[in-house]
Amino acid sequence: MDAAANFGFAIPLSSGYNFLWTFEPGVENTLQFPKRVFNTSGLHTISVILTNKYGCSRLFDNIQVNVPVKCFNGDVVVSPNPAIVCKGSAVTLSYQPNADTCVPTQYIWMNGNQEMTNYGNTSSIQVYNPGIYWVKVKNTNCSYDTPSRITPQFINPPSLKISGPLSICNGSEAQFTAVSNGDTIKWLIDGVWNPDFDGQWSITIGNLSVQTHTLTAVVTSSSTDCSAIVTQNLS
Fold it and tell me: Which of 30, 33, 42, 146 could form an S-S bond across to 8 if both were Cys, CB 3.0 to 4.6 Å?
């Protein structure tokens, strides 16, 4: 149940034919290749009347379809929840069973109507881009589409640019300025955080040893909690 059963003729048919499928009393379809979702399990008998352009008809009846008992009831769960992260971070999607009576042997991850073949057969994936995500789970007898559609949001970090010299003479000092639309800033020299520079958008550094150093600014937006990091080498 839940997954659509596909019907049609195995051989190509020329134009001019009309089709009248009957799936159950009062439920008909005139497509050549219709789909039908059966709401109850068990054996279903369908029929189709094929009519050519001359009005001649032939009845194909006693077509039997066995619909297995529904055994999947799970859904996609997301981490973090809600699925709002900074750009460059991942959102984790996983299939979570819910009183399922069978075990999936295949997971087909979808973005809208497009299969994401790069993820392979796995119950959990990580995504880094916006989309409409869900998963189709299968075993030998059943196919099930999860009901939820996950639409993660990826927030852009604040802008950030450092201005200042690329080299400092031994015994000299130099000033560096950060320009950003973020709210808070901290500075690191050679990867070591200097709390004296917290909140300062312009800093002066000097007395560095004769070697290549790195100056890093980290700016965070208070509204999104996303950060931007820019590093500059000093020689």
Answer: 33
Residue of 235, 190, 189 lying closest to 212 (CA atoms): 235
**Alpha-carbon gap, residue 139 to 156, rounded angstroms:** 40
Q: Are 156 and 219 in contact (CB under 8 A)?
A: no
Looking at the fold, whether 142 and 179 belong to one and the same domain comes out as: no
Global pTM reads 0.69
Same domain, 151 and 164: no
What CATH number did the domain enclosing 60 receive? 2.60.40.10
For the chain, the domain total comes to 3
- Cβ neighbors of 81 (< 8 A, separation 6 or more) are none
164 and 229 both lie in a single domain: yes
Measured distance CA(188)–CA(174) in Å, rounded: 15
Q: Which residues pair with 209 in a beta bridge?
A: none
The amino acid occupying position 169 is: C
Tens of pLDDT, residue by residue over 58-68, are 999 988 888 77
- Do 79 and 35 lie in one domain? The reply is no
Q: What is the pLDDT of residues 126-178, one digit of tens each?
A: 999 999 999 999 998 788 999 999 999 999 999 999 999 998 888 889 999 99
Q: Structural domain of residue 37, as residue ranges?
A: 5-67
Specify whether the CB–CB gap between 181 and 213 falls below 8 A.
no
- Name the pairing type of β-strands 153-155 and 84-86: parallel
Instruction: State how far the alpha carbon of 186 is from the alpha carbons of 57, 85, 189, 199, 229, in Å.
Output: 81, 22, 10, 6, 10
